[in-house]
Structures are given as C-alpha cells and as structure tokens.
Design goal:
Elements lengths: L1 H19 L2 H12 L1 H19 L4 H6 L5 H12 L2 H21 L5 H13 L5 E4 L2 E4 L5 E2 L2 E2 L12 H20 L12 H8 L1 H20 L4 H16 L2 H16 L4 H25 L13 H6 L8 H9 L4 H15 L4 H6 L9 H20 L18 H7 L2 H40 L1
Antiparallel strand pairs: 1-2, 3-4
Helix pairs in contact: 1-12, 2-6, 2-13, 3-5, 3-13, 6-7, 6-8, 7-8, 8-10, 12-13, 12-18, 15-16, 18-20, 19-20
Length: 450
C-alpha cells in the first residue's frame, strides 16, 4: 500500500496539484460555483411545471392553478437555465482579471474584465456567411438577424458555455497585455475613479473588438465560426464524459486524489461540471417538450445524488454503521460526531478523523465504492429503468431527497438508496476488520495505562 501511495503522490498528486493552481482552472472553478444558484432556481421552477407528469393525480389541481401562470413563472427558468453561458462568461472574466491583477501586480479592474469578456462573447452570437465577397446574415426558421432563437438566444445556453469561457479568457489576456504594455488612456488622479476606470478600458475595448472581428471574419470566410470550431473537441470530450467508463474514470481520479490529501472533487469538477450543466439543460428542454432526443445520463448533480452521498467516497452508510455498530471508541465517537454533516454530504470529519486518507485499511473501498455506485447509477438511468435527471438540486441535499427532487420521481430516491446500499456493502468487510484492529489497540492502551 505504501508503494501505491508513493505512486499516487508522484504521478497524480503532483501534476493535479499544479494544475489546480493554474489561473484558468481557478477561474473556471469560480465560474462553475457561481452558476449554482441560477441552476437551482431554474430547476425548481421546472419541477413546479412538470410535477403532474410524475404524479398524475395532481393534473387537475395544476390545470386550475399553476398552469395559468406557467408563461409568467417560466421566465425565471428561461433566464437562468437558458442563459448559463452568459453567467459563466461574466464570472470567468471577473475572476480571471482578479487573479491576474493579484499575481502580476497590475492595475486591472475585475469589473472591466467581466464586461470586456461579455462584449467579446456577445460578438460571437451572430451567424454569418461569406457570399460573393460579402458578409451576409444567415437566414432560417429560427434565425432572427443572424441570431438563433430557442426559448431565448440559443447560443447563450449550454451550447455557448465553452465559447463564453474562451472569449472571456481571450479578452482578459488582451486587457492585461494593454495594461502591461501601458497601451491605455491615463487620466489625472483628481478624476473620479469610475470615470478613470472607464477610460482605462477604452483602448483594450478597441483592441478586443478588433481581434474578435478579425477572428470572426477569417473563420466565416473559411466556412466556419467560433462555435462550430469549438464544438468539435468539446463535443468529443463531452461524449466521453457521458459514458459508463467516463463516469467511472472521473470518480477514480477524484478519490485517488482524495486518498493522498487533495480535494479531488474541486479539481476534477472544474472540468466535468460544464458538461453536466449542458446535459441538464438538454434534459430540461426534453422534459418541457422544447427539444426532441434521448435523455443524457451524466447530468446535473449526478454525483451528489447517486455517488457521493454522505460526502466523497459515498460514506453515508459507513457513518451510520460507525454510529450504531462500531465497537471501537474511536469509530463510534467519530460516527456520532460526523452524522449531522454526513446527512448533508459533508464528510471532512471522517476523511481526516478516521482517517481515510493515507489509511491502507480503508483506501480500497473509498475508491471502489463511488466507482461502483456511479456505474450502477449510470446503467440504471441509461437503460431507462430509472428516470433521468431533469433538475438541479443543492449539493448538500440529503440522500434520497436529492434523488427525488432531481428526477421529480420517487424512483430517483430508490436508485439513491440502491447505490448507497451497494457502497456500504463494499465498505463493510473493511470496516469490520479496521474496527477490530482499533479495539485491540484501545485495549492495549488501556492495559498499558493501568
């Protein structure tokens, strides 16, 4: 086991630790976290709208009440779930500017960075064609002035998340370059800060607009645009992530990192969260009847609903066993102290208190249990035996309740119970063995004290 830990530290902990400190990754993590309130609000409104589909006996009540206000309250869903790319883009620009200002000691204003990134992104929404030496707006049933419409502007939804991230990155880089090379308009100190800040961003604004226009123009002449170029690699990665082996690999890396003391969920989550949000919006649109197609499995809070109940490692069953069945004082006390947070998917007291990290007695089930739970949940949903995830839920939502709310079905809660039960069965023989070892140690310590 020591060789295993040494291998993980050398080939996984080191590279991933460095990657997590990269400016781009830190900004994406912040952007992903910032979208949580919007996806939860949008999902709550969606559940309200489709609840009669899960419970048909409510249909008459809904027709006489909530359905009368559908067009009003679903505006909240449109401008949360259908504009995710815009939220990602704005926060990405803000956070990346703040990070660069701090690390390079430059006078960069995060608000300017956010607005410049948003401008660059919005300039990519229009779809153009190059016909007979002229740039013309594309025409079509869903195109208005070259802008594709869905429930709102289509490219502001999940399909635009990656473009929004990259355009914010490009804009902030050009903004930093202008300030670094002193290509800005400086006003006297007596000028109000707001006015001075606006003029500081004036030259970078021209530079960014020029670069994006040229980039757009070159790609359109070639028969593409930024969205179609970006879609190729990211759709490939997204397709891999939404497979049974992709889900297992994600959980393996998360928990392998945790096993050597690095918060794996934060690092790996920065990469897969954009895909799960995109899949969630896709599923939501199918549930609303706005889109046709097959539901996607790895969506929304798939992880917290079915894989990491009780916290990383799917330790809820383990914690309950420690509370009521453990014979060693150490596990019993820790179980009782940790059960409250564990119900809300927080288990740092267990990870560092048992401990689980660097513990050869528990590291195998800690990695194996979530991998098994993710595989079971994936096949259960993709086979059609259990409902897909159509709504986002807060990550601390207790097990079973999260499964019910995320699918608007009691079958979702049943699937959570199954995956949690399987995870516990994987832990059980290791827990019993470790508990016996601790009992022996405690007895030896007591005898020594006497």
């Amino acid at each position: 086991m020591q060789k295993v830990f040494d291998f993980l530290e050398k080939y996984l902990m080191g590279p991933m630790g460095k990657l997590s400190q990269k400016q781009f990754v830190r900004a994406i993590m912040a952007a992903g976290m910032s979208t949580i309130p919007f996806t939860i609000v949008g999902s709550a409104l969606l559940i309200l709208n489709i609840l009669p589909q899960a419970f048909p006996f409510l249909e008459g009540i809904w027709n006489a009440s909530f359905n009368r206000f559908t067009n009003l309250y679903m505006i909240g869903n449109t401008f949360t779930m259908s504009t995710l790319a815009l939220y990602f883009n704005i926060v990405m620009g803000y956070e990346l500017t703040k990070i660069k200002a701090s690390e390079f000691d430059l006078n960069l204003n995060p608000v300017n960075g956010a607005l410049l990134g948003m401008m660059a992104f919005l300039m990519t929404l229009v779809q153009l064609s190059f016909v007979d030496g002229t740039f013309v707006l594309q025409e079509g049933e869903k195109l208005v002035a070259g802008i594709e419409m869905g429930s709102f502007v289509a490219r502001l939804g999940s399909s635009g998340i990656f473009v929004g991230i990259l355009m914010a990155t490009l804009a902030v880089w050009l903004y930093k370059l202008c300030v670094e090379k002193n290509i800005i308009i400086k006003l006297p100190d007596v000028v109000p800060a707001g006015v001075s800040r606006s003029f500081t961003a004036l030259v970078p604004c021209f530079v960014i607009a020029f670069v994006v226009i040229v980039l757009n123009g070159v790609l359109v002449v070639m028969g593409y645009d930024i969205f179609t170029i970006i879609a190729v690699p990211f759709s490939f990665i997204g397709n891999i992530a939404d497979t049974w082996y992709g889900v297992i690999l994600i959980n393996f890396f998360i928990h392998a990192l945790w096993s050597v003391g690095i918060h794996g969920a934060n690092i790996i989550g920065a990469f897969y969260q954009t895909f799960t949000l995109a899949n969630l919006e896709f599923n939501s649109n199918i549930a609303l009847g706005a889109t046709e197609g097959a539901y996607r499995t790895f969506a929304g809070e798939f992880q917290n609903m079915y894989v990491v109940m009780g916290g990383s490692g799917c330790t809820l069953g383990m914690c309950l066993w420690m509370c009521f069945m453990a014979k060693s004082e150490q596990l019993s006390v820790l179980g009782k102290a940790s059960i409250g947070p564990a119900l809300f998917n927080i288990n740092e007291p267990l990870i560092f208190g048992v401990p689980i990290i660097y513990n050869p007695n528990l590291i195998i089930p800690f990695i194996l249990a979530p991998c098994a739970a993710s595989a079971i949940a994936y096949f259960a949903i993709s086979s059609g035996m259990f409902p897909p995830i159509i709504a986002n839920v807060p990550w601390p939502t207790p097990a079973l309740l999260g499964g019910f709310l995320g699918t608007a079905s009691l079958m979702g809660a049943l699937l959570a119970l199954i995956t949690c039960g399987v995870a516990f069965l994987i832990y059980l023989p290791f827990l019993v063995k470790y508990d016996k070892e601790l009992c022996k140690q405690e007895a030896e310590m007591a005898a020594s004290a006497e």
